[in-house]
Fold:
Amino acid sequence: MTTRIVPIAGKTAEIIETVMTSPDVPQDEGLRFKIRLSVEEIAENIVTYAYNNGNGFLEITTSLDEKGVLTISFKDAGVPFNPLEKEDPDITLGLDERPVGGLGIFICKKMMDSVSYVFEDGCNNFTMTIKTRR
Amino acid sequence: MEVIINQEDGKTYVKLTGRLDTTNTTAFQEDIEPLFTMDNPDIELDCTDMEYTSSQGLRAFLMLQKSVSARGGKLVMTNMKPQVREVFDITGFSTIINIR
Structure:
């Protein structure tokens, strides 16, 4: 299922609901928690940083394969940005050294089974997958 | 996210109910503003009914912990749901915020 949202300014909640109401997304509460959280972190990033003034599109695609692997993809034509290039935060730092922020993509990486990014045909493509059957 | 703050015998009890996400973190930060200014803070955040937190929510809790520590106070988060706890665990927040 593919949904195109344009413009995306202020649409983080709508992006999350688009994914969470997709028939490809399972009903299991634990999985839904992980999916919602991961989608929120990515959506918030794209809405905030991809376009000047959020004045562009986002295409969201969900699919479920025969093995029960759910794939969620985000495509935008904004500023080229690979969120996976960013180094993971040091989660062993104490309170005083701990920077405030920079956790969103890291949480997504931890919650999903795989995340990937490719810049293709002028678009950012960010894809995450999670097994829905164990 | 509903926030109810109660003062009792020098302790501050805060009941958190609902989801803390990108749509309401700013409102949440305003709701907990009193916790950033009180003297000798001794705060318990009751997380029994906190359903969810995104990284923005974590950020708000980290800022609160930093502020409470700077004032020599105490902060504890109690009865966290396992899924919410997992978010605190994977980000290392469980080691910098007292969770019980």
Q: What stands out?
A: Chain B touches chain A at residues 21-23, 52, 54-56, 58-59, 62-63, 65-66, 69, 83, 87, 90-92, 95-96 (CB under 8 Å).
